[in-house]
Each structure stands twice: as C-alpha cells, then as structure tokens.
Amino acid sequence: MPLAFLSKRFVAAVVLASFVLLFGFSSYASADELPAAPQLEAQSAILMDAESGQILFQHNADEARPPASMSKMMTEFLVSMAVKQGRLSWDDKVTVGENAAKQIGSRILLAEGDQHTIRELYIALAVYSANDATVQLAEEVSGSEEEFAKLMNETAVEMGMTQSHFINSTGLDRADMPEKFRPTSIEGETTMSAKDAGILALRIIKDDPEFLETSKLQEYKFRPRDKEPMKNWNWMLGSNKDNATLRKFAYEGVDGLKTGHTTRAGQNFTGTALRDGTRLIAVVMGVPGTTEQGKRFLETARLFDYGFKSFEKKTIIEAKASVPEYETLKVKKGKSTTVGVVTATDFTILIPKGVAVEPVVQEVKPTEDPLVAPIAQGDKVGTVTYKYKDPSTQEEKTATIDLIASEEVNKGSWWRLLFRAIGNFFSNLFQGIVDLF
After folding, report:
1. d(C-alpha 31, C-alpha 435), whole Å
2. 161, 141: one domain
3. What is the 3-state secondary structure (H, E, C) of 100-140?
4. Residues designated catalytic
5. CA–CA separation, 108 vs 106, rounded Å?
C-alpha cells in the first residue's frame, strides 16, 4: 500500500481522535434518534406530562388489567367533587354501616355504628388505602356502593377512559367483597388500563390539586387512642429520604398518588413527581414480586429518570409570532383593508434532548371572513392550527392557538369607504372586460 495513502489515513484518524477528546460524541446520532427507552418489569406502563397529557413512553398502555386499589383514585375524585359541589362537607360526621365494617384487606378497622367525619375517612382512603373507609365514603356519595360504581363508570366515559370498568369503590375482586353487597346490576371485574390510570391522575391533578396535600402525608393517626399512626403505602414520597427503611425508594418530587395490589393484579402504582417546574405522571401495572420488595417503586423510578433526564421543555411555537403567509387578515369597513395578526400564546412540549420538532401550519381560521372594523390591538381575530409529529410516539398531532390583532384598525369614514367601493367597482368592471377577451 502506498505510503502517501497510509499517511492520509493516519492524519484522518488523528483528527477524528482529537475531535472526540475535545468535544465528545453527541448524545444522539441524528435529530430523529430518541433516547433509549427504559426496560421495565411491568405488564403495562405509561409516562405522561401532567400539564399537557403528552405521552413520553408507553408499553401495553391500552391493555385493560386489574388495577386493585388504584381504582380508588376515582373514588377520591368523586368524593372531592361531591364536597366541592356542596353535596357533602368535610366536617360531616357519618355513621359506619355494615358493608364498610365487613371489608377485608387494608382497613382502619371500622366497626358498624362508629362515627367519623368525611375528612377523616378521606385521609384513611388516601394515605392507608383503607377499604372500609372507601366503601363508607362511596355510600355517602351515592347511597350504595353499587350505585357509586355506576357513577364511577359514567365518569370514566366522560373522562375518555376507554378501557376502564368498575364494579366497586375499592378495586377488590368480586369474590373478596361481602357476599351481601356484591353488585347484581354490574357484571365482570374491575379493570383499568395504564393509559386510563394516567388520564384519571391527570384529571385529579388539574381539577383537585389539593389532593396532593393529602396524598403526600407520610402518616396519619386516625384515632387518638391508636397506638400507631397509619403509614402511607407510597414509599416513593420524597419526604421518605430521611426514613432509614424507605430511603432507597424515596424519589425527589414525588407527592402522590396511589398504590394497588392483589394476587390477580400484581403490584401496581400510579405516581406523580414535580421537578424544576415539570410534573410527570407514571403508571406501572403487573409488576412481579411482593409488596415488601417494593419493586413497583423501583420500576416507577426508571420511568421518572427517563422523563426528567432525557426530555426538556421546548417552545415550538412562540407567542406574538406572525404566521408565515398569514401575516395579515382581511378587514372590511376599516381605515385599513388588512390587520396584522400574531399568536396569542406560545406552545411548549417535552422533547427528547437533541431532537428537533418543526410544526407546519395546517389551517388559519378567522373569527369571521372578512373581519369587520373596528378592531382593537389584542382582540382575538381567529385561530391557527399547526401539525407536528410527536417525537416520542411518532403520532401526528395538532395544536390550535388563538390569533390576536397586532395593531388597531379603526372604522373608516363614510367618505373613505365610498371611494374604496367606487374603486373596487371599476377594478372589478375592468377585470370583467379583460376576462371577455
């Protein structure tokens, strides 16, 4: 082989090595390459942005599975809504009935005839996942647990939870319910998909953010006479960093939401974490192992790590930006025949680091065509719809943003409008003559 050729190869290798030493390799080989997704020991899972609902990761996310106590998120939501609507009060004192007293599993050992406030029962539900407290709350809302389950199903449909079905307020299997209180008008077992659990969690965070103040409690003493307080089953709470036993599960920013476990369901968890202004929702279902092993929390931590470390918020459409080819819209009866328009708000999504997203204008729709003067600066004058490809799911998405006037257009004087009309008449007449030939 010629010496000159070897020299060229040697020089090229040295130059390449120098670039690697100085700058390192890029995290991603191209703008379309995504960060490696986590490998999970879960039958299904999803990771979502809690602000927009954007999906960052999913695995069998539409598969309907037994959620166990994660279904109590719907109970929590409906109880809170009943309070907000004035149908219940947190300070209402209620008497425990037979159904609640006969519940099994995680419970606060309510006896028939006991009296407690709605708030006390709600905390027992949120912190300790107490089945007896859950059932009593359901009966307070709807009169019976079966009627409450119907409300759960109606609400699931309204929320767009397409793979969910509830037969009770707790998530217990039918066989584990007190026989006398098993539903007769609702068939099957309770099921929910990871995606539906994420949708429900998103709704709770948006409509009932106060819930997180309850779900993040590490413990709560239900009765003054109780020797020990209830311990929160959510071992991922960021506050557990100082707990010697649970420190390895604690995750900075976690303040909710709900665990779930039965033999049929496996280990389930819907968690949410807030870091640096970004809140994520993670759901894992069907994780193997025992509750004591805490593997569902370790798997959730993998999802959170993936979301917080691999993604960044980027504004792909700026506020007060003009729209290419639609910088102005037509106006009639104004001093000017057009008005400048810009976007009213920006549009921000989570994007894998190193990946570019280029939105394309799909449609511009004026509030009326043409617009009619007078128009004040800042008035809404229409909408613009962009389309883009979601970098995580590769799905085609759209975003619609209001358009506002960037300038004022006063109403034209009758004299100006008259001469404009005359000019338009002759212009159209001349064009009609030209078209004849």
Report:
1. 51
2. yes
3. HHCCCCCCCCCCCCCEEEHHHHHHHHHHHCCHHHHHHHHHH
4. 69, 72, 129
5. 7
- 150 pLDDT exceeds 60? yes
Going 228 to 229 to 233 to 238, the CA torsion angle's sign is negative
| Nearest residue to 279 via CA among 201, 396, 195 | 201
Q: Are 170 and 149 in contact (CB under 8 A)?
A: no
Q: Return the C-alpha torsion angle 215, 219, 222, 225, nearest 10.
A: 180
The label of the residue with tokens 């709600």 reads 122
Report d(CA 231, CA 247) in Å as an integer.
Answer: 15
List the Cα angle 334/335/339 in 5-degree steps: 70
**Residue of 99, 74, 85, 97 lying closest to 150 (CA atoms):** 74
The continuous run of DSSP H or E covering 230 comes out as strand 230-231
| Predicted local distance difference test score (pLDDT) of residue 421 | 53
Supply the range of the domain harboring residue 324: 318-416
Angle in degrees, 0-180, between the axes of helices 72-84 and 118-128, rounded to the nearest 10: 150
Q: What is the CATH number of the domain that holds 325?
A: 2.60.410.10
Q: Under a CB-based contact definition with an 8 Å cutoff, are residues 385 and 399 in contact?
A: yes
Q: How far apart (Å, rounded) are the C-alpha atoms in residues 185 and 182?
A: 9
Q: Is residue 119 part of a domain?
A: yes
**Domain contains 24:** no
Amino acid identity, residue 138? A
For residue 44, the surrounding DSSP H or E stretch is strand 44-49
Helix axes 131-142, 118-128, angle to 10 degrees: 130
For residues 326 and 243, state if they share a domain.
Answer: no
Percent of the chain at pLDDT > 70 equals 86
Residues 366-399 have pLDDT tens digits of: 999 889 889 999 999 999 999 999 888 888 999 9
Q: Cα–Cα distance between 243 and 223 in angstroms, integer?
A: 23
Identity (one letter) of the amino acid at 344?
A
DSSP state string for 333-382: SBSSSEEEEEESS-EEEEEETT-----EEEEEEESSSSEES-B-TT-EEE
In a 10 Å sphere around its CB, with 0-12 CB exposed, 13-18 middle and 19+ buried, how is residue 276 labelled? exposed
- The closest of 244, 374, 383, 391 to 312, measured between CA atoms, is 391
pLDDT (mean) for 203-210: 95
Find the helix or strand (DSSP H, E) in which 16 lies.
helix 3-23
Around 403, how many Cα atoms within 13 Å sit in the side-chain half-sphere? 26
Token pair belonging to 363: 């449609």
What CATH number is associated with residue 100?
3.40.710.10
